[in-house]
Amino acid sequence: MTYCVGLKLNAGLVLLSDTRTNAGLDNIACYRKMFFFETPGERVIAIMTAGSLSVTQTTLARLDEANEDEMADETTSILKAPTMLQVASIIGDTLSRTRREIADQCRELRQQASASMIVAGQRRGGDMRMFLIYPEGNFIEATEDTPFLQIGEHKYGKPILDRVVTPATSLADAQKAVLLSMDSTLRSNLSVGMPLDLAIIEKDACKVGARRRILEGDPDFMQMSAEWSAALRDSFVKVTI
C-alpha cells in the first residue's frame, strides 16, 4: 500500500509520500510515488500516486508521451492546459482509461487494478489548486474547510491534520504536520515505509522550491518522532476524566 498527503495553504503546497510497494507479505519493493511536470516560472504540477503500480506507471508514461507529442495541444498535454482544472481533467481521463484497460487484461486472473492520485500545482497567473483523482477519473478539490488531501493508508495520519492544519498554517509548521502524520502511519501500518519524499512549492513561484528524501534512520526524523511520542505520553498523563 502507500500513504501520500498534500496540504494546500495560503503560503504554498506541502507534499509528502512514502515509497513502499508490496504485492503480498513477501514481495516488498521501493518505488517513488511523487512526480513533477515543471516549466519553472511558468507552471508546476506535482502528482502523487497510490494503488496498482502498473496503472500508475502506465498513466504517467502516457502523460509524458502526450507532453512530448509534436501535435500536443491544451486538450492533450498537461504542460499546455490553460488551467489546473483542465490539468486534473486530462489526468483523470488518462487514469480512468488506463485503469479500465489493465482491469480488462486482468479479469481472467481475478485481479483488481485500481489507483488514485493527488494532483497539485499552479500556472503563472492562476491559483494554486489541489485535487484527489479517483480511479474512475472523477475528482474532488481541497478547500478552505479541508485544506489537505490523502490517498492510500490515510486513517492513521488524519487525526493530527484535522486538529492542527488550517489554510493559515505556515510552511514550516505544515512540514512538521505531514511528517508527524506519516510517523503515525509508519507506526501503525507495515505496508507504508521509508524512504520518504517531501516537497515544498511556494505560492506564485511556479516551481518546486525544496525537495528532500528522508532515509531510514534519518536522525532529524527519529528525533522528531521521539519528541512527539514523549509529548503524547506527557499529555496523556495530564488529562483528567
From TrEMBL:
Name of the protein: Proteasome-type protease
Position of the signal peptide: none
Record's keyword terms, sorted: Hydrolase, Protease, Proteasome
UniProt xrefs under SUPFAM superfamilies: N-terminal nucleophile aminohydrolases (Ntn hydrolases)
Superkingdom of the source species: Bacteria
InterPro entries, A to Z: Ntn_hydrolases_N, UCP009120_prtse
GO molecular function, one term: peptidase activity
Lineage, top ranks: Bacteria, Pseudomonadati, Pseudomonadota, Alphaproteobacteria, Rhodobacterales
GO biological process entries: proteolysis
Organism of provenance: Paracoccus spongiarum
Gene Ontology CC annotation, any one: proteasome complex
